[in-house]
Amino acid sequence: MSAEILIIDDNPDIRNIIRDLISETGYKTRVAANYNQALKEIDKKLPDVAIIDVKLDKGDNDGIELLSHIKKKNKDIPVIIISGHANIEMAIKSLKNGAFEFIEKPFDQDRLMNFVNRAVENFNLKNQNKELETKLFHSFELIGNSSNILKIKEQIEKLSNSDSRVFILGPTGSGKELVARKIHKLSKRNKFPFVILNGALLDAKKYESELFGEEKNNGSISYGALEKATGGTLLIDEISQIPLETQSKILRVLTDQKFKRINGNHDVKVDVRIICTSSKNIVNEIKFGNFHEDLFYRLNVFQIIIEPLTKRVEDIPLLVDYFSNKISNSYNLKKLNIRGDNSYLINHTWPGNVRELRNLIERVAILANNNNDKISAIIKESIKQEENEVYSESNFSVPLKEARENFEKDYLTTQLKKFGGNVSKTAKFVGMERSALHRKLKDLGVKDLN
Q1: 132 found inside a domain
Q2: Which residue has the higher pLDDT, 158 or 129?
């Protein structure tokens, strides 16, 4: 859908020039010739972008009053202020009141269109962010009654009144992004964008342009994640994957609270909360020289650790029930009859954690047609396939002694879970003396599950 621009100017020649210029690019336009007409147009329907002359027929600064009127209705609408009586004080006043840009008459048409294009892009980006946030925040919740999840919920609540940087650590698929979104949603920045920069997915040559933006030779600007997230939250996902040189520049931004776009000459001030995530052992990454220690201490003001699903087995039945309801509703099915305490689900190692569990439930919903036998068969087959793949990857690339130890550790951990951590019952089942099993568990580094 084409953006709609409202043009407010008491000079008919200028009003028509701007209207024709903007219409040629494919945007829709509306016009107003004075203050009262402008109020009527604004109140009838808010535009996507407004261009307002400072001095109309009501007073010296009636354009600024219209700017404030629009911002009260929707602060995200970009407003470009134009003036034939420009001075520095007026420019500062309009920008302080929320103007997107300020331009003097007579204006360069290319420069004005550059401002308009940027304003439309800015408005569309904010709308996309809102839609995405609404969809995600209403789609998934942080589910679980394990001590780890309860602690995280408490931490998120405490962070709602803070602007502190947060470092979220946890394995792949454990819910790091979901935790970051919950922090943003409860914070005072929740009316502003939530932007994600994924360190693991970017082309190594594009890190800095994606982060800082770039000023092109033709005068156009490509905005980076830091500017897109202005006023809101920037999530740097898998930050340990970002090159050391770029890490140094991020550290400089945190220190100076400003940066320059690539090929840019002017400083851009930073007003953004930064949350970072990593699925790697960040202490080891620092030790191996892959991550700047100074940057870690700057980012690690508040740390949240999400444990793998195997360490919070009591959450599995709750997650199964939650995803069963969600996915049944999505596919317009009867509630899926999946037992959350199914031994295959409880004893699986879940290398993909909550994401893997959710995908499995969706697979069941598509293939099983709520047939109990099919549900059980699909779960068993899927988990067996996953475990074979993981076992092949991890054990065929190590010496025999280590592979045997890995198998024993996995086997005994699974049996312990089956018997609720009861060593005596486990020893009887596996055919070992209780004391011998204790020694074996100690040698293998298996912790007491009680």
Answers
A1: no
A2: 158
Arithmetic mean of pLDDT over the chain: 84
The two most distant CA atoms of the chain are separated, in Å, by 97
Q: What is the pLDDT of residues 167-191, one digit of tens each?
A: 999 999 999 999 999 999 999 999 8
The range of the structural domain enclosing residue 181 comes to 140-307
Residue, of 369 and 360, whose pLDDT is higher? 360
Which residue, of 307, 323, 350, is where some domain finishes? 307
Let me know whether 206 and 344 are in one domain. no
What tens digit of pLDDT does each residue of 108-140 get? Answer: 888 899 999 989 988 887 777 666 555 544 456
Based on the domain organization, do 110 and 175 belong to the same domain? no
